[in-house]
Amino acid sequence: MSTRTPRVSALHLSPDAAGGLRAERRAADVLAEEVLTLRLDGRRSFLIPRTPGHDVELAHGFLYAQGLIRDAAQVREARYCAGAQGPEGCNSYNVLDLRSTHPTPDTPAPAAPQAAEAATISEPALRALLSLLPALPSSGMHRAAILAPEHEGKPRLLLSREDAHAATALDKAVGALLLQRRVPATGLHLALSCPPTLGLARRASRAGLSGVFSPAPPTAAAVEHARARGLLLARAGETPKRRPVALYSGALSGGA
Questions:
Q1: I need a labelling partner for 128 at 20 to 30 A (CA). Which of 32, 45, 214, 228 fits?
Q2: Angle 55-65/166-179 helices, nearest 10 degrees?
Q3: Is 127 strand, coil or helix?
Q4: 67: alpha, beta or left, given left = phi > 0 and alpha = psi -120 to 50?
Q5: Contacts of 9-16 spanning 24+ positions with Cβ under 8 A
Q6: What is the 3-state secondary structure (H, E, C) of 240-256?
Q7: Closest CA to 142 of 211, 195, 209
Q8: 166-179 and 198-206 are packed helices; what angle lies between their axes, rounded to 10 degrees?
Q9: Cβ(205)–Cβ(225) under 8 Å?
């Protein structure tokens, strides 16, 4: 499995002295994307387009999002299929065999119930969380980062996962939390580099995360879901010096 950034030939255009465009063909970076096949108990298969890396976390997060497992202990084995040969006769690392502790049900298990109480957060805590967004690591892909409070009350970056697909990045992050036995992730928050959609909000609330933060506005369906599930949903503005905040779901503690 290669995690290197692939390169392709591209035509690079740049202004010239005469006001036109100068064309030069040379190598350019592109994002890696390969399809991971998850084979569960030899009975079910799932195809997941993803950027290679953190595949075991992705498998856990994906199965959790689908309601097929409730904790990491239900996956007793995860290994790459030794017979999956790539074009050069090497293991492609694109087929992952999973064994669960019990036969996989034919239909997903029902989602865990979520509290519908209105979420609250103090203004200093909200601004502290949002202040971390510009500094989160990114390589140009979709990012899903888990933020946790420290004992001094200041947030910190717990982990960050990236992928060409937003839902897959979040599945990797939730899978990491599952393997750390931190789900339900009450008190932890999700930072996204992309607009929070209904699918992403559902994954966040299912994992028990307390809030979702992004520099981009959410979809209307994501707002409706967040309000129904008691999930904080906030956006930080894009002005560097003064970052206005929009709180779509939840309220400031103290009645604001």
A1: 228
A2: 100
A3: helix
A4: left
A5: none
A6: CCCCCEEEEECEECCCC
A7: 195
A8: 0
A9: yes
What percent helix, strand, coil does the chain show, rounded to 5?
25, 35, 45
Determine which helix (DSSP H) or strand (DSSP E) holds 61, and give its type and residue range: helix 55-65
Q: How many CB atoms lie within 10 A of CB 119?
A: 19
- The set of residues, in sequence order, having a beta carbon less than 8 Å from that of 152 and lying 6+ positions away, is none
d(CA 31, CA 42): 31
What is the rounded (10 degree) CA torsion for 110, 201, 178, 42?
50
What are the tokens at 159?
């982990």
Ordered alpha helix ranges (H), 102-197: 123-131, 166-179
| pLDDT at position 123 | 85
Length of the chain: 256
**197: helix, strand or coil:** coil
- What is this structure's pTM? 0.86
Q: Quick one: tokens of 214?
A: 């992004």
| pLDDT score at 206 | 97
Q: What are the pLDDT digits (tens) for 164-182?
A: 999 999 999 999 999 999 9
pLDDT of residue 48: 97
Which stretches of the chain drop beneath a pLDDT of 50? 1-3, 107, 109-110, 112-113, 240, 256
Sequence-distant (6+) residues with CB within 8 A of 181 are 71, 72
28, 22 contact by CB (below 8 A): no
Whole-angstrom distance, CA of residue 221 vs CA of residue 230: 14
With beta carbons less than 8 A apart as the criterion, state whether 179 and 206 touch.
Answer: no
Q: What angle is formed at CA 227 by the lines to CA 173 and CA 156, rounded to 5 degrees?
A: 35
**pLDDT at site 113:** 47
